[in-house]
């Protein structure tokens, strides 16, 4: 081994474990997932992610009144006794009557950030499915692709259109992608 190799310092991240009650009593900005005692950061904050989340929420609001749905961004969902996930977008049937969702939402959609990949969010998607969320979607603003997830895996949605089971809720991401490309003016 060379001298340089011997002098390398290896730094490993260590996880800090806390209780469920401590997680629930703490405010995180942005909010974080809680998985079996570990608080996990989520990738977000980039323009493409943020802009798509905003536009998606506006787009899905059209389904609230006709179907009795209520939408929320970054809403805590307790998927297991020791697991809380924070989907980018979720919709529930009716008023949930609770601050943290303990029943499966009708729909959860995750928006990939540049650092994310389909394999990197697999655990999160599996948690939603195991919890009973029937409609789980994934949007990739960089690749302009959308995906559905079910027990058989993650599948690319034809033409970037997500359609839900049980209610005719349809998300055509082709309507949402183009504005992400518009230049932002610095003039005020």
The fraction of residues in strands falls at 25-35%
Mean pLDDT metric = 87
CATH topology: tt1808, chain A
Strand order of the largest sheet: 3-6-7-8-9-10
- Structural category is alpha+beta
Shape: globular
Instruction: Give me the Rg, rounded.
Output: 19 Å
Q: Cα distance, first to last residue?
A: 58 Å
* Percent helix: 10-25%
The major β-sheet equals: 6 strands, mixed
Number of domains: 1
The CATH class name reads Alpha Beta
What can you see in these coordinates?
The chain has a single domain (43-181), classed as tt1808, chain A, CATH 3.90.1570. The model is unreliable at 1-12 (pLDDT under 50). It is α+β, with helices and mostly antiparallel strands and 188 residues long. The chain is 20% helix and 27% strand. The longest helix is centred in the first third of the chain and has 14 residues, at 47-60. The chain starts with a helix and ends in a 16-residue tail after the last strand. The protein has helices at 3-6, 20-25, 47-60, 64-67, 122-131, and strands spanning 33-35, 38-40, 69-73, 77-80, 83-85, 89-93, 107-111, 135-140, 145-150, 153-156, 161-163, 170-172.
Keywords:
188 residues; alpha+beta; tt1808, chain A; six-stranded mixed sheet; four-stranded antiparallel sheet; 27% strand; globular; disordered N terminus
